[in-house]
């Protein structure tokens, strides 16, 4: 049986990649597409935004319609910026829908850590306890029955999967973990800022947010669970 999926945030970089993945999934049917309600595209055909989807997916993407979601969707993906997903999750859960959030809004059990690193108040603290960290290699059984999945960040995914077997088998010292990470620029999304312009980043390579990056506490949270003790990594991301 096909799973009927809706996506909120379909016009962003994350939405584009998500659509591509789901179109190639044998057990999924994309039935509804929505923007965040503040998208510059407004109501549009998704293949006009991303021409590569012509004749593959020509659905209209519009503002979220909860009545439509309740009727048509089994599961909703949130491909939204951090701090935005928490505005949608409570209502979606109240409709009985399973939710997979691709932002950081539900990755932390401690809301204070989220608020410190994402510089905003968490408006749905009551739901944090039921969110399952969506890394199948660690939480496969829980993921199968979860109502709300908090998908990991990009850096945490590669860091945690690399270190998990070493910590589980006591082959690494949890007090001396150094993560030297590199990323492309698409992770910054579509916002226009000087430091992300092609002319600024082409041929350049630099460290950024050393010891202050928001993915460091996410990595620490999961590695601490694996190690059975507090872990604080040295995390140096590069762009």
How many strand segments? 10
CATH level 1 class label of the largest domain: Alpha Beta
User: What is the chain-wise order of helices and strands?
Assistant: EHEEHEHEHEHEHEHEHHE
User: Strand portion, in percent?
Assistant: 15-25%
Helix/strand class: alpha/beta
Spatial arrangement of strands, main beta sheet: 3-4-2-1-5-6-8-7
Contiguous runs where pLDDT drops below 50 for at least 5 residues: none
The pLDDT mean sits at 93
Q: Assign an overall shape.
A: globular
Number of helices: 9
CATH superfamily of the largest domain: NAD(P)-binding Rossmann-like Domain
Oligomer: single chain
CATH architecture designation of the largest domain: 3-Layer(aba) Sandwich
> How many separate structural domains?
2
Describe this structure in words.
Strands 3-4-2-1-5-6-8-7 form an 8-stranded mixed beta sheet, with helices on both faces. Strands 9-10 form a two-stranded parallel sheet. The protein has 2 domains: 151 residues, NAD(P)-binding Rossmann-like Domain (Rossmann fold), CATH 3.40.50; 84 residues, Dihydrodipicolinate Reductase, domain 2. The protein starts with a strand and ends with a strand. It is built from 9 helices and 10 strands. Helix 7 packs parallel to helix 9. Helix content is 33%, strand content 17%. Strand 5, helix 4 and strand 6 form a beta-alpha-beta unit. The longest helix is centred in the last third of the chain and has 15 residues. With 239 residues, the chain is an alpha/beta fold.
